[in-house]
Amino acid sequence: MSFLQPLALIGLPLIALPILIHLINQHRHRTIPWAAMMFLMHAKRLSKGMARLRHFLILLMRVLAVAALIFVISRPLSGGWLGSIGMGKPDATLILLDRSPSMGVQDLQTGQSKRSAALQKLSQLLEQGDYGTHLVLIDSASGQLQEVDSPKALLDLPGTGSSATSADIPDMLESALAYLRANESGRADVWICSDLNENDWDVESGRWHAIREAFVELEGVHHFLIADAGLPSNNLSVRVENVQRWERGNDAELVLDIVIRTEGDGDVAAQVPIEFEVNNVRSVVELELDRQGASLQGYRIPIDSKFKAGWGSVGLPGDANPLDNRFFFVFSEPPIRRAVVVSDDLKSGETFQQALTVPTDVRHQHRVDVIPMDRVAEIDWEKTSLLIWQAALPSGLVASQIEQFVEAGRVVMFFSPRQSTDETLYGSRWMDWQTSGSQQVSNISWWRGDTDLLAHVESGDALPLNELRIYRYRSFESHGTPLARFADDAPLLTRVPTDRGAVYFCSTLPTAEFSSLEREGVVFYVMLQRALEQGSRALAVASQRDAGPNVLAGRNQWELVASIDDSQLLSQRGLHAGVYRDGAYWAAVNRSQIEDRATVVPVATVDALFDGVSYRRIDVNVGDTSALASELWRVFLIAMVVALLAEAVLSLPSRRVKSTSLIDLTVASGSERR
After folding, report:
1. Phi first, then psi: what are they for 421, rounded to 5°?
2. Per-residue b/e over 381-391, b at no fewer than 16 CB within 10 Å?
């Protein structure tokens, strides 16, 4: 229980006032023995036990009435987890809001989403309490810090609306930590609103230890997690992949893959209508579903051959989450997929070239160039999709060119150099070569199969990484996220976070001296082809992009063509699903693939992340309209009235008590001595 007016509790010692008056009143009259009254006193003792009990109850009711009055004035709030609120005015209140698509799950009766429900409950709670001098919002979509005037303003801000972006809870906590340090805040409350999706929390990240240790050093910081981990019922999501435009003579068509996933434990319809829209032309197809959903591989849509580029979407009927019911796509003529391999090792260079030359689709054109370090100046950065760098990490002008290459949306993969090097790039550097010990082989113990280069194939089967044999690998320091690890937790493949494009580090080489990547072939080929495809998207005039703050960077005249919500603000573009156009260039922005495959982190795992810091978790459910805390002063007011009425009733039989008011506290025991 907490209190909106805790200073009123200073008056609690006043509950002893009736007892004090009773003790004083006992000594107000002196008792004088009188022989004529001795027989009467003897008879009185026979009923003295019941009289004392009645007098004790009268005194108790008076004490309870005073205590209830003090609690009414202090305005108590319900909720045992609110014990640390109200213990002092915080200097700052920080709100970390998850705006990812999964927070858009709605209660079908109230129409309230997880995100809006958490905001409304938190706003009401902060309005009832004291949220401090500074109220700061950190939203997962933009990552920016915004000072808010009042808790009520949170409900109408563009920065608290839904989005198609994924959340990064560790990054948001790092932003909160930087704010508290920069402003030298004393006592602070940090509120996190989330649905505990695994990809949002990234519990395996090494950042959590540093974050926890940093908050332990800050005194007076309290963490509160409003968690809604409930799964939606009967929810369908749609995704479009591998959009291609092909021409056959004078005819043109779009070829695309459509994946529909089911979520929840309820029954789904056997058939659902799928709406297709291409350049404002709509059609509907009925699709059979099973318990896992459905997929259409290589679905063909005829189009006019004059449309060299354009846009489209695939939509589902409304359900629990409207944010995953429509997926936008754009199309254009495919570009040449060009890769450059920089390596001073001739054998390794040939291995990379063989894996990259063979296309996954014969209709794609591939070009692969293998060059040594001294010919780096020959690279045509504007026409290259993928850069394989198997040499010492570059510095100076070449390093700057690679950074610009990645910022343009392309992909770089760094493989272990044979020679020693001390250079650092993207916060990473190569260390010493490692052997596999007495067994002379290292196995892959874990890899991320839900997304990125090592994701499961379209059939759902995992890549055979467990069959790989690594004989030598190079350790390296990096702040990136591992995609595959050895049994000793050393990373095989790591992705370094970037605003656009992608940067990977691989700790071994594909030749037989180092690994079985070349001999096994499948993993190596799929990994490189996916990286090439990812980098080629930036070369096409039409590109599929994951929603994010900088997803539309690089061009300045993007215009909104289509979206789920046509009322997007300019500052929110790129954060919502939709189609954008800048002259001849098209971009489709959607939620990332991992949003459709995310699982919920167990609450015990999340709680363990906050070991050693002040932390409370509040579990809520979408559709629950009750407030996080409610005032209890009415309860105590009723208790006070009941106590006074009981005191009056108990005092009626005693005529020796002149008054039963709260002020006249003379009890029968004092009157008897008269």
Report:
1. -155, 150
2. eeebbbbbbbb
Beta carbons of 429 and 423 less than 8 angstroms apart: yes
Closest CA to 279 of 301, 264, 295, 261: 301
pLDDT tens per residue across span 629-666: 555 666 777 877 887 788 778 777 544 444 444 434 33
DSSP label at residue 97: E
Instruction: Look up tokens 């929840």; give the residue.
Output: 264
- pLDDT at residue 86 greater than cutoff 50: no
Phi-psi region of 234 (alpha: psi -120 to 50; beta: other; left: phi over 0): left
Token couple for 292? 């896992």
> Could you identify the residue written with the tokens 């780096």?
376
Q: How far apart are the first and last CA of the chain?
A: 46
Output the DSSP codes for 468-495.
--BSEEEEEE-SSEEEEEETTS-EEEEE
| Structure tokens, 577 | 């699903």
- Give CA separation, 476 vs 428, 471, 494, in Å: 7, 16, 10
E strands, 129-210, in order: 134-139, 145-148, 188-194
pTM for the whole structure: 0.67
Query: Measured in whole angstroms, how far is the alpha carbon of residue 193 from the centre of its chain?
Result: 8
What are the φ and ψ backbone dihedral angles of 554, each rounded to 5 degrees? 105, -30
CB 317 within 8 A of CB 365: no
Determine contact, residues 542/333, Cβ cutoff 8 Å: no
Burial class of residue 150 in the structure, from the number of CB atoms within 10 Å of its CB (0-12 exposed, 13-18 middle, 19+ buried)? exposed
How many Cα atoms are found within 13 Å in the side-chain-facing hemisphere of 352? 28
**Plot region of 655 (φ>0 → left; ψ -120 to 50 → alpha; else → beta):** alpha
Q: Angle 356-362-368 (CA atoms, 0-180°, nearest 5)?
A: 25
Distance, C-alpha 376 to centroid of its chain: 41
The pair of structure tokens assigned to 125 is 């709670």
Please identify which residue in the block is written with the tokens 């059979």.
Answer: 288
C-alpha to C-alpha distance for 71 and 633, rounded to whole angstroms: 7
Which residues are 590's β-sheet partners?
546
Q: Are 543 and 330 in contact (CB under 8 A)?
A: yes
Q: Provide φ and ψ at 355, rounded to 5°.
A: -75, -30
Q: Cα(428)–Cα(505) distance, rounded to whole angstroms?
A: 9
Pair of tokens at residue 605: 């795992």
Closest CA to 506 of 470, 463, 455: 470
Q: Which CATH class is domain 88-220?
A: alpha beta
Nearest to 561 by CA among 540, 538, 589, 529: 589
What stretches of 416-452 adopt beta strand conformation (E)? 429-435, 444-447
Q: Distance between CA 592 and CA 164 in Å, rounded? A: 8
Instruction: Kindly give, in sequence order, each residue whose CB lies less than 8 Å from that of residue 110, ignoring residues fewer than 6 positions away.
Output: 623, 625
Element (H, E) at 459: none
3-state secondary structure of 113: strand
- The sheet that has 235-248: what strands, in order across it? 235-248, 251-263, 293-303
DSSP state letter for 600: B
pLDDT digits (tens, 9 = 90+) for 537-594: 888 889 888 999 888 877 778 999 998 876 567 778 889 999 999 998 999 999 998 8
497 vs 206: CA distance, rounded Å: 14
CA distances to 345, 347, 504 from 390, rounded to whole Å, are 8, 11, 12
For domain 337-536, the CATH architecture is: 3-Layer(aba) Sandwich (3.40)
Q: Residue 483: name the closest of 515, 442, 523, 522 by CA.
A: 523
